[in-house]
Give the backbone structure.
Amino acid sequence: MNIRVNGEPCRVTSRDLASLLDELGYGDATVATALNQTFVRKKDRAEAKLAEADEVEILTPRQGG
C-alpha cells in the first residue's frame, strides 16, 4: 500500500500503525505518532488501521540546549 511517512511517499505492507513502526525499523524506540494529523497514543497503535494514501508522522524526542 502507498502512504506518506513524514511527508515522503512510502510503500509498505503493514496494516496498522504498530506494525508500521516495526517495518520501518523503529522497534521499541520512543516516538510520538500521528495518523492523518491525529495523535495516536502508544497503546492505541495496533488499533490504528492504515489505508491507501494515509499520512503518518513519526517524531523522535530531541535533547539539546
In short: The CA atoms of residues 29 and 65 lie 22 Å apart.
